Amino acid sequence: MHDQEGPNITADVSLLEGNVEILIARLSECRKENEMLRTELATLQSILRSCKLPGTGNSSISGAESEFTYAEKLRVKQKLVLILQKIEMELRSVRNL
After folding, report:
1. Rounded CA gap, 22 and 93, in Å?
2. Which of 26, 37, 41, 72 is close enough to 68 for a disulfide, judged by CB 3.0 to 4.6 Å?
3. Coiled coil: which residue ranges (predicted)?
4. Residues 37/87, Cβ–Cβ less than 8 Å
C-alpha cells in the first residue's frame, strides 16, 4: 500500500509545482498591469488638477477653453473625479487580493 502512494504523491507535487508557476506568472502580469494603472491614474490626477474652472484663479482662458460653459466644465470635472474614484477602488481591490 505504501508503494502505491509514491507515484500519487509525485504527481500531486508536480501538479502543485505547475499551479504555483502559473500563479507566479499571473501575479507578475498583475503587478505590471497595476503599475500601468498607477501611472495612468497619476496622469489623470494631474490632468484633473490642471483643469481650471472659472473663478478658480485662472485669468487667462484660451480659445478652446472659452467654448465650454461653466456647467459643462463642472460636469466634465465631476465625471473625471468619478472615473478616478473607480480606478482607485479597483486598485485597492486588486491590492487586497
Report:
1. 21
2. 72
3. 20-47
4. yes
